[in-house]
Specification:
The chain is mainly α. The protein has four helices and no strands.
């Protein structure tokens, strides 16, 4: 199935909107104040991505993404852990962070697949950059997990 770059950006924008909705539902559901704070920050990052994609669509310019910026990231492997089977209102910060890591990993894969689809086009770099952003989010969450959960054990 062929889709235009505009349609791909629309899909990406919708993915960011759905990610925001996911985090806000999770925010409303959990009781732990620490988890709520983390979730709110993650939701705000999704809004930034949506706005960035919208700006690209409105202006037709992809350079707003900062394509020449270099980022280095490392996967700590924490997101490979088994996730809780059910989301519940009494979830621990640990469980929320694990769900968030997996969510960010799925977003990274989404953008990597779009980058592959638009290989050798100007927008390929946009999707690669968004994939890196999602990886950076995952790593931030992994660092929180490491600081909060692993330091308790």
């Amino acid at each position: 199935m062929e889709i235009t770059i505009k349609e791909a950006l629309e899909d990406a924008k919708r993915k960011e909107e759905l990610a925001y909705e996911f985090y806000m539902k999770l925010h409303d559901y959990v009781k732990d104040l620490g988890a709520k704070t983390i979730i709110k920050e993650l939701a705000e990052e999704e809004v930034k991505h949506k706005n960035l994609i919208q700006e690209m669509m409105d202006t037709g310019k992809i350079d707003v993404v900062g394509l020449d910026t270099k980022y280095y990231y490392t996967d700590l492997g924490i997101s490979q852990m088994v996730l809780p089977k059910v989301i519940s209102d009494d979830m621990s910060v640990q469980d929320v962070l694990r769900i968030a890591m997996k969510h960010e990993d799925n977003s990274r894969i989404f953008y990597e697949k779009l980058a592959e689809k638009y290989q050798n086009s100007p927008v390929e770099e946009v999707f690669k950059r968004l994939a890196v952003e999602e990886s950076l989010h995952r790593n931030t969450i992994q660092k929180m997990y490491e600081d909060i959960v692993l330091s308790e054990n």
